[in-house]
Amino acid sequence: MSVLEVKNLNLGFNCEDRFWQALYDVSFSLEKGKMHAIVGESGCGKTVSAMSILGLLPKNAVITGGTICFDNKNLLDLSPFEMQKIRGAKIALIPQDPMTSLNPLYTVGDQLLEVINIHQHIKGDEAFKKAVEAFDMVQIPCAETRLKSYPHEFSGGMKQRAIIAMALACNAEILIADEPTTALDVTIQAQIMNILNDIKTRLNTAILLITHDLALVGENADEVSVMYSGRIVENAPVKEFFQIPNHPYSNALLKALPDGGKLETIEGYPPSIQQIIPGCRFHPRCKYVMDICKKNVPLLYKIGENHLSACFLNE
Ligand code: SF4
User: Would 23 be classed as within a structural domain?
Assistant: First the structure.
């Protein structure tokens, strides 16, 4: 069941009297109890798509079209005050750097209890019990003692778990995890992903995973959207994506994954938002480019039941 739906989102930035488009007709949906990954290189628009959902865009960002439907409301129509009530309580962010979300001056427990108080209106012993439960769920040992620690006494992985515990304490229906394991080493990365998978299954939470790491997607996500230069170029169930990737960019990304053989690289660089590229924005780097690709924008072709790909080769 779809809990959030982004449809034809168009967004750009005003910079020095010019408008630069950053997102083109971005559409995807999140389902309860499923992890949807948006994958792509830095600057492709994946984080800005996620921040649009949270209403946390820079001041010069302008949404020029589209809808983000959650709870029978278009989030883009809500006032900053209404968005504030949804953010944290119903849709929570797990950032790349957890230190940006933890106040170094207060104990982690104080911060968690404040969240429980604001979002669940619970205080005292009952709130403390909830905080211990949240720490248990994210596998922080000796919860009662650790709640009295300050953020600097936590390792990177523990801080990330504390942030996830705060999202759980709000009973958030959607977790947006923006490169949640990039700053962590491999074993801790696996533990954090296990915790997110556990939450997804046990609490039926919808998770949006923003990442550049296709291996992480393959091991954890249920659905994947591949983004290139502001557009979603392929969308598929994860198993199908890895078995029969369709878009030339997806194929190139998969060939660049280390698998013991020779790594293949993708020629050239992704364009900046200031570069105006007619037709398919991948065409300057695509080895299958045709005349039509340089003039027209390929729409998303349906190539499987839930599999879409924006490439003229499917025509
Ligand atoms: Fe390559 Fe053309 Fe397909 Fe774009 S539309 S990915 S340029 S073949």
Answer: yes
